[in-house]
């Protein structure tokens, strides 16, 4: 499994530690899930935008075909 090193300021690291502790999770698990969640959210937003563009241009696309 590949690894990744991330750098945080002391304040960011403290905030990460506090949130992970508050949820009863390790910092690694908390950070991992946050990154995966961000990736999924980006994909969701992209898909919504693409669907909107396709719907908005559907009539024009029919005329151009």
TrEMBL record:
Q: What is this protein called?
A: Arc family DNA-binding protein
Q: Please name the InterPro entries in this protein's record.
A: Ribbon_hlx_hlx (IPR010985)
Species this protein is from: Streptomyces phyllanthi
Question: Quick one: a GO biological-process term for this protein?
Answer: regulation of DNA-templated transcription
């Amino acid at each position: 499994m590949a690894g990744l090193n991330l750098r945080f300021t002391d304040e960011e690291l403290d905030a990460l530690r506090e949130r992970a502790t508050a949820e009863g999770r390790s910092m690694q698990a908390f950070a991992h899930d946050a990154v995966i969640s961000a990736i999924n959210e980006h994909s969701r937003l992209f898909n919504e935008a693409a669907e909107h563009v396709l719907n908005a241009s559907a009539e024009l696309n029919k005329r151009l075909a």
